[in-house]
Specification:
6-stranded antiparallel sheet, alpha+beta, about 290 residues, 9-stranded mixed sheet, globular, single chain
Length: about 290
């Protein structure tokens, strides 16, 4: 496997980052996860826009968009990949131990691409189990959720809770006990034929898949409510699913002890999502 490190492609064995890198020492960095279908990175421009926003909010210098795009394409080509998982990571870089950001003169830039392995089909037909995590989502006033940060410790704690509970994913609440998001996903549920998802000001990352699903729902006359919801709202839902870049729309069959069917709205939105991917690829190739 080949990795893009800083300015060049190197074998994985040579893709070495210093122990003095602030990403390692302090989690001081940002990242984006993307998915390529048939050689085309889906919604690449949206991911790069969000990476730039994260960098701006962290006051972190990152390479120009054109350079990042070229690095992603070159890394996929080096690994001979068509359907791929892609991760772009930028840390503040190497510098002396200390919290002062000015100690680092140049960021560390990494692109990893791996062969995308499809999720087992039974997950989509049967759904997955979630638990409500005791670990709370970071306060908005502490770490802005609009930053897709390398600092992921509370998400890791919540993921541990999911594993201990025999669940696939965990639902994290904010400090007020409102539903926020999963460890690596946005949460949706259907209640009284309305598609509900936590509003951004609850303290969630504005997922790119989340945004697309909301848009598709509205275009297809599905009522959408972005609001403030408690676990009780989730327990009284008729359908539940979560979204992210790699799994797209993943149906949920159980949250804690409450069971759900994989409903028609979930199925319909996943079909529409697949159609959107196909249209994006077609438009990309035609232009």
């Amino acid at each position: 496997m080949y990795i893009f490190l800083n300015k060049t492609i190197v074998p994985e064995s040579d893709a070495v980052v210093s122990v003095y890198d602030r990403g390692f020492l302090y989690g001081d960095g940002i990242y984006e996860t993307m998915r390529a279908y048939n050689g085309v990175v889906f919604m690449l421009e949206k991911h790069l826009e969000r990476l730039g926003r994260s960098a701006s909010l962290k006051r972190l210098d990152i390479p120009e968009t054109g350079f990042i795009t070229d690095a992603v394409c070159r890394t996929m080509e080096a690994n001979k990949l068509s359907d791929a998982y892609i991760r772009v990571t930028v840390s503040r870089g190497k510098g002396p131990i200390g919290l002062d950001p000015d100690l680092c003169k140049e960021p560390t830039f990494v692109v990893i691409t791996e062969d995308f392995r499809e999720y087992p089909g039974h997950l989509y037909s049967d759904g997955v189990k979630l638990v409500i995590a005791k670990t709370r989502r970071n306060l908005v006033s502490a770490i802005n959720p609009r930053i897709k940060s390398l600092n992921f410790l509370n998400n890791i704690f919540a993921k541990m809770e999911a594993k201990e509970g025999g669940a696939y994913e965990a639902v994290m609440l904010n400090a007020e006990g409102l539903i926020a998001e999963g460890t690596v996903s946005n949460i949706f549920f259907v209640k009284d034929n309305v598609l509900c998802t936590p509003a951004l000001d609850v303290g969630v990352l504005d997922g790119i898949t989340r945004e697309l699903v909301i848009s598709l729902a509205k275009k297809n006359d599905i009522r959408v409510s972005e609001g403030k919801f408690y676990p009780a709202d989730l327990f009284n839902a008729s359908e539940v699913f979560f979204t992210n870049t790699t799994s797209e729309i993943m149906p949920v069959s159980q949250v804690e002890l409450i069971a759900y069917r994989v409903g028609e709205i979930s199925k319909s939105l996943h079909m529409l999502y697949k159609e959107e991917v196909s249209a994006y690829l077609k438009n990309y190739r035609e232009n």
